[in-house]
Amino acid sequence: MANFNYYFENFKIELKRYFLYTQEYIMMLIMNVTMVFIQYALFSNLFYAKKQVINGFTKENLLQYFIINFLISQLTFTEVHASIKNDYYNGKMVLIHSKPMNYILHYFSRAFSNVIGNTILMGIPTILIMTFIFHFSLSIKLLLLLYIEIIIIYTMNFFIYYIIGIISFSNTYGLMVKHIYTMIYSIFSGFLIPLNFFPKWLQNTANILPFKYMAYEPIMLFISFNQKAFFKIIEIQIFWIVILYIIVKWIHNRIGERLYING
Fold first, then answer.
1. Does an H or E element contain 73, and which?
2. Taking Cα atoms as reference points, which of 221, 237, 202, 231 lies closest to residue 64?
3. Exposed e or buried b for every residue in 177-206, given b needs 16+ CB within 10 A?
4. Which of 51, 68, 166, 193 is the most exposed, having the fewest neighbouring CB atoms within 10 Å of its CB?
5. Integer Cα distance of 135 and 130 in angstroms
6. Cα separation of 236 and 221, whole Å?
């Protein structure tokens, strides 16, 4: 119980800190919503001048794809790798490892505040804006299921960036690792454009990686919802969460000592 109180207090402190930057996040919301408009307009003019359906997408489907993609990317955003880096250089890493706590839960409780903060400042306003302008809508049931998906995707994203944070201290190419991951994720997750628009070999490669289950598959699910597919996607996501957790533990045990030598 004492440990739970610690993690909950950790979460509340970070959430309060999050709302200190409200104006910054509002500007980010405006900028990103504008990008959705530009992205949609660009694709509409390029691909839908003469055809109604391209690679299985109507214009309406494509708009839904970009909106849901925006929601997922904003609400699952994490900078746990930066937190690990800061704690390493300011010596807090020693304090964290000297307490009887789970270091993964310590960072998760801090980082999860972003999900709640982004939901309030970016998620809800985005849904309202898109509903007003484009008549985008999901039922309350689908919104709740989408939020469950967002939490699961966030957990996957958290572990990946946790791994990046730890790897950063095992070599001098930490920043490069992050940039390489961002590039790989953007392509193989369907974040930039739906995977349907890519060649078959790239789609086949995406099938064996976890990234499409962090964007493309959940987005397609909520464009045309199917309950059986929903649970199937969750099963695969949980499988990848377990794999990522094992990797986190393994890497931490191998090079974790370097994280708190600085203290």
1. helix 59-75
2. 221
3. bbeebeeebebbbbbebbbebbeeeebeeb
4. 51
5. 6
6. 14
- Tens place of pLDDT for every residue, the chain, 263 residues? 557 787 888 888 888 888 887 787 788 888 878 887 887 777 777 666 666 777 778 878 888 888 899 889 888 988 888 777 777 777 666 666 666 677 788 888 888 888 888 888 888 888 888 888 877 778 889 999 999 999 999 999 999 999 888 877 666 666 688 888 999 999 999 998 899 989 999 999 999 999 999 999 999 999 988 999 999 999 999 999 999 999 988 887 776 555 555 54
At a CB cut-off of 8 Å and minimum separation 6, what does 171 contact? Answer: none
Of the chain, the end-to-end C-alpha distance in Å amounts to 29
DSSP state of 102: -
When divided into structural domains, the chain yields a total of 1
Q: Residue 244 in contact with residue 160, Cβ under 8 Å? A: yes
Instruction: Please list the residues that pair with 248 across neighbouring strands.
Output: none
Rounded distance, CA 213 to CA 206, Å?
9
Nearest to 136 by CA among 145, 144, 125: 125
Residue-range definition of the domain harbouring residue 121:
2-260
Token digits of residue 70: 């925006």
